[in-house]
Design brief:
The chain is of the alpha+beta class. The chain folds into three domains: 12-64, Hormone Receptor, Insulin-like Growth Factor Receptor 1, Chain A, domain 2 (Hormone Receptor, Insulin-like Growth Factor Receptor 1, Chain A domain 2), CATH 2.10.220.10; 70-112, Hormone Receptor, Insulin-like Growth Factor Receptor 1, Chain A, domain 2 (Hormone Receptor, Insulin-like Growth Factor Receptor 1, Chain A domain 2, Ribbon), CATH 2.10.220.10; 116-172 and 185-211, no CATH class. Helix content is 15%, strand content 36%. Strand 11 and strand 12 (109-112) form a beta hairpin. The longest helix has 31 residues, at 181-211. Keywords: Developmental protein, Disulfide bond, Glycoprotein, Heparin-binding, Secreted, Sensory transduction, Signal, Wnt signaling pathway. It is found in: Secreted. InterPro entries: Furin_repeat (IPR006212), Growth_fac_rcpt_cys_sf (IPR009030), R-spondin (IPR051514), Rspo_Fu-CRD_dom (IPR043601), TSP1_rpt (IPR000884), TSP1_rpt_sf (IPR036383).
Amino acid sequence: ANYGPNPICKGCLSCSKDNGCIRCQHKLFFFLRREGMRQYGECLHSCPSGYYGLRTPDMNRCSRCRIENCDSCFSRDFCTKCKTGFYSHRGRCFRGCPAGFAALEELMECVEGCEVGQWSEWGTCSRNNKTCGFKWGLETRTRQIVKKPAKDTIPCPTIAESRRCKMAMRHCPGGMWRLPAKTKDKKKKKKNLMERAQKQHSIFLATDKTSQ
């Protein structure tokens, strides 16, 4: 439409040369378009982006959406489509979904996510299913899935985690404590060196007596 000196008054019941449509035909929405310092009335079948249609006995009007980051809305307080980069959730727009909800990227909506319970207490420190015989082990805690997500593609948070812990009993009662393999190798190597040194010392003594 051309909103110059001769505005187009399509769909108007009454029209002003300077201000465009003043009243619209039945079922059409009156929209006040602003262009710089001036504004013109226009009659539309549907309201533009950022506005919603408000029907009244007097005249249907296009009213601005008052919801932040909303592109189109159903009513003053309910957004139906958010601006690019924002997720729609219960008529509002969010950068990220609230707690307990997951982002559905293809629709840019927040849907019910996977709900998990509270963490259990840390379990017994153990290693190789033993609670003794080692200095360090692992302890684990878990939590249960309380509510499955609305879609199978939405992952649940981790339900088990482990951390390093110090054994309460390093030596097992009533049994020999087994040395780690590295410690055994060091002791064996040291023993071999001692035996070689003693052997060389014996040979030296025998050679010394012969020379006398």
